[in-house]
Design brief:
By secondary structure, the protein is of the alpha+beta class. It has a domain of 141 residues. Helix content is 28%, strand content 15%. The protein is built from 7 helices and 6 strands; from the N terminus they run ααααααββαββββ. The strands form 2 sheets. It has a 3-stranded mixed beta sheet, with helices on one face. Strand 2, helix 7 and strand 3 form a beta-alpha-beta unit. The protein is elongated and about 170 Å long. The chain starts with 10 loop residues before the first helix and ends in a 5-residue tail after the last strand.
Length: 202
């Protein structure tokens, strides 16, 4: 590259020109750096600062950091609404259900509660972070009265059944019946109802 310095340039100016002459050849992936999903992890805090993220914790997982940066504009557009709270909480991986004061008896007007459904591996240690997120995204006039956690247990249960249908029949021998009988001259056993032939040779 030919020099653009004038003939009367100083040695310092010439040294600076030599030191910076290759700066244009350094790749600067602008599209990647401004994308929350593709930005290198080391640059995420600076991207969060550029998007004016209100809350940041270095102990968050990489996915929580990316999600928080990704929804930052939407949260700012709707800040002070339930939608902003749900979006910010969902970015941290939690499912939120808003309970307004008029949905439960005995609650003071202008207050609200939060029901959080815990997923597998989630615990109560994120409560301070959730409260901070809620306070940064809620409207000023509303006040949080509490957070309730819910959880679901999953398992497998096997149920079996069998059915048998039929008729059970019991057959018993008839009891012996003794009748007053009379033999006629031909050797025929005479009864009241039936006639039985008796072998005379027997």
């Amino acid at each position: 590259m030919s020099s653009l310095l004038p003939p009367n340039s100083t040695q310092l100016e010439k040294a600076v020109e030599q030191a910076t002459k290759g700066i244009g050849e350094i790749p600067v992936p602008i599209r990647t750096l401004w994308n929350a999903n593709d930005c290198p992890e080391a640059f995420l805090p600076w991207l969060a600062w550029a998007y004016s993220v209100d809350q940041w914790d270095d102990n968050w997982t990489i996915q929580q950091k990316r999600n928080t940066v990704d929804v930052a504009i939407r949260v700012h557009q709707k800040k002070g609404t339930p939608s902003a709270m749900k979006t910010a909480i969902a970015a941290l991986g939690y499912q939120l259900e808003l309970v307004e004061w008029f949905q439960e008896t005995g609650r003071a007007p202008g207050t609200f509660g939060i029901d959080i459904t815990l997923k597998d591996g989630q615990g109560l240690n994120a409560t301070p972070t959730l409260i901070d997120t809620i306070n940064r995204t809620k409207n000023v006039r509303s006040h949080l009265w509490g957070i309730r956690y819910k959880t679901h247990s999953r398992g497998q249960q096997y149920i079996g059944a069998a059915q048998s249908h039929g008729i059970q029949l019991h057959i018993f021998p008839l009891p012996p019946v003794f009748l007053n009988t009379v033999l006629d001259e031909n050797g025929v056993l005479i009864t009241d109802d039936n006639f039985y032939l008796i072998d005379n040779e027997a």
